[in-house]
TrEMBL record:
SUPFAM superfamilies assigned: P-loop containing nucleoside triphosphate hydrolases
Stretches with biased composition (Polar residues): 1-16
Family annotation (InterPro entries): P-loop_NTPase (IPR027417)
Species the sequence originates in: Brevibacterium casei CIP 102111
Protein name: AAA domain-containing protein
Pfam families according to UniProt: AAA_25 (PF13481)
Region Disordered: start-end pairs: 1-21, 39-60, 378-397
Membrane-spanning ranges: none
Length: 420
């Protein structure tokens, strides 16, 4: 265990092993609980040609920086932002390129009624990032370390690496500059692809902010979620050496922009919103929605799930700053299945969390048509005696010429009979 440094040593941190990478478990009062982990990343501060402003007062972008930015956009060197965190599984028969839910370096949100499964959605995204080789920071104002790790393990996370992969941080008070020194050190060392803040309401309360007061809400979003999203990891010496080699060949080349994490804030909605009516916005100040510069989804429970029952929830698009999702469309479905024993092997399978992309209109139409045909073929299966001809089907069902022929052909194919 290590304690927070005093004011004179605010930039230094200690643990039992100087080679340990610091990972926050929980901050209680003036004590910081640490977990030892992998070797720290050797870093060096370098200029990465990010757009810069001349001063906070003027907000004026330097002409040289503006020119570099414009040329990058015009030539395609700077690609349009795309959501890359929270990859969605595609339904069977859907051959589109899969989408993701959240933007890195942006503040994203999921809002829903209590019990709608928001935390499970956040966990599904977190575990997908971990499976992809990334780390996740969970800033928790509502649960406990035991609760969060229990959920992760129940969903199949590896207990041997979970402490390295999922870093838990439970602020006991307002994130002052001393706490920020610690948090930014963790962001530099861990370099998470995702930071979950659970939840907005409790975080605002901890910071002494009124959730209905526009200015107080805007201030919290600016100084906490957005500050985390805009935090860029330091560049390693190895990266700088590689970039130097490129500059030797291409003197005007600029290195890629370092990516901040995707920040996911969880929030609540009014009951009317959760049931499909009312506004597609979180409860409280409208500045909450305005502060989201990535994606915002409203999560609605459609079939409640529990320890013993499967269920699912839908994510409806409330906002996408960059236009990959349409307002009001159903973007994803969270499916939750409890742990169960496989009959053939007796193996206990973990709880299943699946984020699925909603099928395209064409796939949905095809699925509905196939389901309807199945039901109509079943009617022919029930006929005694079996149908003999199209006219026979028409007389016994009242169907028209084309429908009777189509269903009869499908029935004969499934019976292994030749067409007449």
């Amino acid at each position: 265990m290590s304690t927070l440094p005093n004011n004179e040593e605010s930039a230094s941190f200690s643990s039992d092993d100087p080679n340990d990478k610091v990972k926050v478990v929980e901050m209680v009062g003036n004590e910081l609980f640490l977990l030892p982990s992998k070797q720290p990343t050797e870093t060096v501060a370098v200029h990465t040609e990010e757009p810069r402003r001349t001063s906070g007062a003027s907000g004026l972008l330097r002409p040289s920086t503006a020119e570099h930015l414009i040329q990058g956009i015009a030539t395609g060197a700077r690609r349009a932002e795309e959501p890359t965190v929270g990859l969605l599984a595609l339904p069977a028969g859907d051959d589109r390129d899969p989408l993701s839910l959240l933007y890195r370096g942006r503040v994203n949100g999921i809002a829903g009624e209590s019990g709608s499964g928001k935390s499970w959605t956040a966990m599904a995204v977190a575990l997908d990032e971990i499976e992809s080789g990334n780390s996740v920071l969970y800033v928790d104002y509502e649960d406990s370390a035991e609760g969060i790790y229990t959920r992760a393990l129940a969903a199949g996370a590896d207990p041997d690496t979970l402490a390295d992969d999922l870093i838990y941080f439970s602020p006991e008070g307002k994130l002052d500059e001393e706490a920020w020194t610690v948090l930014e050190h963790v962001l530099d060392q861990v370099q998470p692809s995702l930071v979950v803040i659970d939840s907005t309401g409790e975080a605002l309360s901890t910071h002494g902010a009124n959730p209905n007061a526009d200015e107080e809400v805007a201030e919290w979003f600016r100084t906490v979620p957005r500050r985390i999203a805009r935090h860029r990891p330091p560049v390693t010496e190895e990266q700088e050496r590689k970039w130097a080699k490129v500059r030797d060949v291409r003197p005007h080349w600029h290195p890629p922009r370092p990516e901040g994490p995707a920040v996911l804030v969880l929030d609540h909605v009014t009951k009317s919103s959760s049931e499909g009516g009312g506004s597609l916005s979180p409860i409280g100040s409208q500045r909450k929605r305005a502060a989201i510069d990535g994606t915002l989804f409203i999560q609605r429970m459609k079939e409640p799930f529990s320890r013993g029952a499967e269920g699912y929830a839908e994510l409806v698009v409330s906002k996408d700053r960059h236009g990959h999702f349409r307002l009001g469309e159903k973007a994803a479905v969270l499916r939750v299945a409890p742990d169960h024993e496989t009959p053939a092997t007796g193996t206990l399978e973990p709880l299943s969390l699946t984020l699925e992309e909603v099928p395209s209109t064409e796939v949905q139409k095809a699925a509905r048509a196939a389901s309807k045909l199945d039901a109509e073929v079943a009617k022919l299966n029930d006929m005694d005696p079996p149908p003999r001809s199209k006219r026979d089907v028409m007389d016994r069902t009242g169907w028209g010429d084309k429908k009777a022929l189509d269903v009869l052909r499908a029935w004969r194919e499934r019976q292994g009979l030749d067409h007449e």
